[in-house]
Amino acid sequence: MENALQVKNLSKTFKAKAGDVVAVDGVSFEARKGEVTVIVGPSGSGKTTLLYLIGSLESPDRGEIRVFGEDIATSGADLIQYRRVRVGFVFQFFNLISALTALENVTLPMDLRAVPAGEQRARAVELLERMGIDARLQRTKANRMSGGEKQRVAIARAMANDPDIILADEPTGNLDSATGRVVVDILVKLAREDGKCVIIVTHDESILEVADRAFHMMDGKLTDHNRDG
Fold first, then answer.
1. For residue 207, what is the DSSP state?
2. How far apart are the C-alpha atoms of 229 and 227, rounded to whole Å?
3. Could you tell me which residue, 113 or 227, shows the higher pLDDT?
4. What whole-number distance in Å separates Cα of residue 166 and Cα of residue 187?
5. What is the strand order of the sheet 3-14 is part of?
6. How are strands ordered across the β-sheet holding 36-40?
7. Which side of the chain, N or C, has fewer Cβ within a 10 Å radius?
8. How far apart are CA 125 and CA 83, in angstroms?
């Protein structure tokens, strides 16, 4: 499998009144197309910051983030284009626009890229149907959906612009175990069937079962799960 992502010696420190907080401390790892990479760690371990660095929602203090060989951290890459096209985000709290329908939430990323309206709708319907969101739910506003429905819509939205990398931050954190399992299975299929590079950060160690590559994170440091025991 082709390396989609190479992270090398990545670090990020936040300033705080009580003193500097080292959120990510010299992290290095690789993630491939067609595979699921799982990073497990407790709250405050730095895993969400790591994901945000990869997705360019935060800027690193030092280190490299290479996406198919291009270092997005230092190369002057078009980060707006990168966020819109190369990566798709799935968040714990869904981050849908409550006043919009499921269909409108999924078409929005395509609208930002000026994709023709007919193409937007066709792709959104296809993605939502694939996620088990039927025609009635497609017309339902996000604030009237269950947590599981919202997360499936969020995954469809993440796929709207056909990104290479899917970044999932605690995707089951607000779901019951059965619904969470459905969401994890969808993410695994995106890797296995669509060839996406899927990276999941979570506190739930049961998700390690689906990992092709697995890591633990603690106090900003990343260790290989297999070597970790």
1. G
2. 5
3. 113
4. 8
5. 21-32, 3-14, 62-67, 70-71
6. 87-90, 165-169, 197-202, 36-40, 213-218, 221-224
7. C
8. 22
In angstroms, the CA 199 to CA 180 distance is 16
Residue 201: both structure tokens together: 């950060």
Q: Cα dist. 141→61, 112, 167, 187, 206 in Å?
A: 40, 20, 24, 23, 32
Strands 21-32 and 3-14: antiparallel
DSSP annotation of 141 reads B
**Domain locations along the chain:** 36-48+78-228
Q: What is the pLDDT of residues 173-200, one digit of tens each?
A: 888 999 999 999 999 999 999 999 999 9
Question: Selecting from 3.30.1330.10, 3.40.50.300, 3.40.50.2300, 3.40.50.150, what CATH number does the domain 36-48+78-228 have?
Answer: 3.40.50.300
Asked if pLDDT for residue 16 goes beyond 90, the answer is no
With beta carbons less than 8 A apart as the criterion, state whether 41 and 216 touch: yes
Question: Could you tell me the pLDDT band of residue 75, with boundaries at 50, 70 and 90?
Answer: low
Nearest to 38 by CA among 29, 17, 105: 29
List, for residues 26-70, the tens digit of each pLDDT value: 999 999 999 999 999 999 999 999 999 999 999 999 999 999 988
Q: Is the pLDDT of residue 81 over 90?
A: no
